Amino acid sequence: MISLPRIVITGIGLASPNGNSLAEYRRALLEGRSGVRKWSIRHVGDTLAGVAEFDTLRWQKKKELRRGTRAGSISIYCAGDAFADAGLKPAELDRSRIGVCIGTTEHGNVETENQIHEVAQYGFDLSFWSHHHNPRTVANNPAGEVTLAFGLTGPAYCIGAACAAGNLGLIHGAQLLQLGEIDQAIGGGVSESIHTFGIFASFRAQGALASHTDPTRASRPFDRDRNGIVVSEGGCLYVLERLEDALERGARIHAELIGWHVNSDAADFVLPLAERQNECMRGALKRAQLAPGEIDIVSSHATATPLGDQQECEALRAVFGDSARTHVNNTKSFIGHTMGAAGALELAGNLPAFQDGWAHATINLDNLDPACEVRNLVANQPKELGRVDHILNLSFGMLGINSAVVLRRFRG
Hints:
The protein has helices at 22-31, 62-67, 70-86, 109-120, 133-137, 141-150, 165-178, 197-205, 243-248, 274-288, 306-320, 332-335, 342-350, 353-356; strands spanning 7-15, 36-41, 45-50, 98-104, 156-160, 184-191, 234-242, 255-264, 297-299, 327-329, 358-359, 383-384, 390-397, 401-408. By secondary structure, it is an alpha/beta fold. It folds into 2 domains: 7-248, Thiolase/Chalcone synthase (Peroxisomal Thiolase, Chain A, domain 1, 3-Layer(aba) Sandwich); 260-408, Thiolase/Chalcone synthase (Peroxisomal Thiolase, Chain A, domain 1, 3-Layer(aba) Sandwich), CATH 3.40.47.10. The chain has a 10-stranded mixed β-sheet, with helices on both faces.
C-alpha cells in the first residue's frame, strides 16, 4: 500500500460575524456571544444576518478593493492572515508551488444584481454596465484575487460545492500536496451571501428564512421553535503543508488532517438524506482509521431548518449512538449560515479544543426537539472535556452533497 504524506494545518486566517482572528473568534464562542444582527437589503427590506467587519485594507490597496469583489476581499484578508499565522511570506517562497483552493457557493450573484440595479437607473442603457463585470463574476474570482494580491502562480481555483464547499477547499488542498503538485496550499471557504437579495428572497419563499425579535437568538439549531436559516458572510482559509516540510522549518502545527469523505444523496434538490450523511461520516472515519467512539467533538452542520436538523441527528445517532466520549456542538447558532465558508469557519471554531480542552456550546437551545436528541449534545454552556484528540467536521449542501473531514491533535 502506498504511504501518502501526512498533511497538517500551520496557519489560520478568518473573518466571521463575531471575530476576525482565531483568538477573538474562539473567545466569542466560549463566552456565548452571537454575531447575528439586524440587516436590511434592497427589495427584501429588514431582515437578519451575520456580518463580517474586518480591515479590508490590511492586505490590499483601495484600487484593488474597488475593482474586486466582496468575496475576493474576504479571501485576501483570510489568506494574508493565514500566511502570517503560519510564519510564511509568499515573496520568499517559490510562488509557483503555492496552490489556492477556495470553496464557495453563490459567487457572482452580488455583482450581477448590482449591475442590473445600476443600469435600471439609466433606462437600461448598457453603456453604464461595468467592464469589470466579467472578471468579478467568473467562478474562480475569489481564488484569482488571492493570486493577484500575493503574486501566486501555482494552481488556483474555486470549488462549487454549495454549503459543503469549505470542507472541499481543505480536501483539495490536501490532495494537491499529497500528489506533490505544490508545497503549500491555501484551502478553505468564503461567502459574500448577505449582499445578494436573491438568497434572502429564495429562503423566504421556501419558508426557511429565520426570524426572531432578538437577532442574537434567531439561529436555533435543534430547538423545537427553530424557524430557519440566518444568512451570513465570512471566510476561513488555512495554510496546509506536508508534515515533513512543516517540521523542517520548525512550524507551529494547529492540527493534522487525517481523513475525509465526500458523497451525494442523489435524492432531492434541497432535502437531505440521513442514510447518505451516515455513509459520509463512516467514509471519513474509515480513511482516518478511527472507530466512531474515538471522536471527541462532532462539529454539526445543522442549519436550524426543521427537516435538515432531524435528518442529521438521525445520522448522528446511527453512527455515534452509544459513544460516551463523543460530544456534538454547533457553530451556526453563533454566526448563522456562512454558506461556502461554513465548513471552514465551523472547523476553526473547534480546532482550539486541541489546546484548551473545551467544547463550545450550541446556544439558543431552550427547548430541545425530541427528534434532535443526540447523546452529549453540548447545550448553552461550553463543556470542559479535558483532552481532545479527534474532531469530525460535517458540512452538507443543496443538491445532496455531503462532506466530512477528520482532524487529529498533532502528536509527532
